[in-house]
Amino acid sequence: MPLPKADLVLRNGRIWCGLDSGFVESIAIWRGRVLATGKESEIASLIGPATRKVDLAGRLAIPAFNDNHMHLLPLGMSMVEVDVRATEVRTMEALLGRIKAAADKAAPGEWVVGRGYDHFELDLKRHPLREELDLVAPHNPVYIKRTCGHVGVANSLALQAGGIVEESPNPQGGALERQNGRLTGLLMETAQRLVGTVIPKPSVAAMVDGIQRAGQECASYGIASVMDANVGARCGMDEIAAYETARRLGRLPVRTYMCLAGGPAGIVETAYARGLVTKAGDDMLKIGPVKVFTDGSAGGRTAAMFEPYEGGDDHDKGILVYKDEDVRDMVLDYHGKGYQMALHGIGDHAIQICLDAVENAQARIPAADRRHRIEHCGFMSDQQIDQMARLGMSPAPQPIFMYDFGDLYISVLGEERAATGYPMRRWTSAGVRPAASTDSPVCSINPFVNLYATVTRKTSRGTVLGGQERLDVAEALHAMTANGAYVSFCEADKGTLAPGMLADVAILSRDVFTCDPEAIRHDTRCDVTLRGGVASFDRHGEMAA
Ligand SMILES: [Zn+2]
């Protein structure tokens, strides 16, 4: 039977279809899926009078990116917070100026929330003080979060709203910083919740706006699929409602796999009672795994390690969120209910607890092809990688952490241990499938920085950290596309550009296979993103009729 005429044909460039299939000259798309790929002469017969022809003009097209560990809704909400990132403000005066401008516009009593400052990058090399925030925003509670998300600064009205007084004790797992016995406003780790829980929660309508805003941002980088890695963590089931509403209104720009907040404060009991188990949904919006945190972060010295942190005593090995048996019981429960797991584990000790919990669950209730995941999965031994492979598990790492935090890792872990982190090569060799992702808004959603970090293992200061863990460009793109599809059970539909697959395509401004690696990071853009053959982003308007 002859093939139908294509709706859309891309030609006159290079199209990378995937790790196994390599490059073709042209691709034909029909009804949202790939109709055929091949030489330009082969595809020519599929061009009819109504076929739209896109001239790649030497550019590269690839399967659209799949960022399978990021936080879409928080990214969208953060985009309307006051931006005090180091890329925006370099001085304390500039930072305070931005807060003042926002407070001047706000009604008295309205919260002003800022995000992303980095005191190391500010001229004064310190956090803002609560009094400084009081001066620029005397009538508004203010809370600004450091780029890492682990600490933040509140002004006096915000402290008051959170019920924090000078005599308040440090909460379990957190601290209220004091200087000369007086609160500075700096809240660390769990102490942030005292303020975080009184910042008014967004309405479902505001969350729909946030989802759309963040989804458009993703599309502008060639991303067609994401996993939101902690749905329900802040606003419970309302977050699911916001996603469903966004989807029904056509305001969900990216295919979204929803990882449900697990644990005692999560939404899994409610979700399960409504039939929302892993894989429920369709190719735009689907229920994903259950998230359980087992430790903190390496940069914050809270990832649970077997060996102490640099310069620390014997007890300085990070924190475990739960007792081993609690993790084991939770995993057994969720596994028994049919969920995929997404266990946050960064230190080798935490990772061991995750692996053993899955091993136990699979022994008690064998379930083939469950694809349990370890999120981040930073620091692990070869033996642990073997166990992971044996259990059919996958890591969901952030190579971009090496770029953003690599120098910090050297200082807290020592260079040798830091260099073993995020072992993309060891994983690939062991046959596990790392789904390279960004954890945005922790790191930039920009996939080109992630790609750069994967192929160079360079930190932002240019230090090569663990060069033996480099992947080549094809392997790295595979980790950012096909592996993301695999860990979300979608590899039959996306991640490669074979006939029959969804026509999710990114057209890049340059050929990342042939350019200098430095140009990948600082001079590569996405020009067009297709999701199901339709443009979800079109930088130059070339897809317009
Ligand atoms: Zn995350």
Automatic annotation (TrEMBL):
Q: Name one GO molecular function term.
A: hydrolase activity, acting on carbon-nitrogen (but not peptide) bonds
Q: Which Pfam families match?
A: Amidohydro_3 (PF07969)
Gene3D superfamilies in UniProt = 3.10.310.70, Metal-dependent hydrolases, Urease, subunit C, domain 1
Q: Which residues form the Amidohydrolase domain?
A: 54-534
Report the InterPro entries cross-referenced here: Amidohydro_3 (IPR013108), Metal-dep_hydrolase_composite (IPR011059), Metal_Hydrolase (IPR032466), YtcJ-like (IPR033932)
SUPFAM superfamilies per record: Composite domain of metallo-dependent hydrolases (SSF51338), Metallo-dependent hydrolases (SSF51556)
Protein name as it appears in the record: Amidohydrolase 3 domain-containing protein
| Native organism | Stella humosa
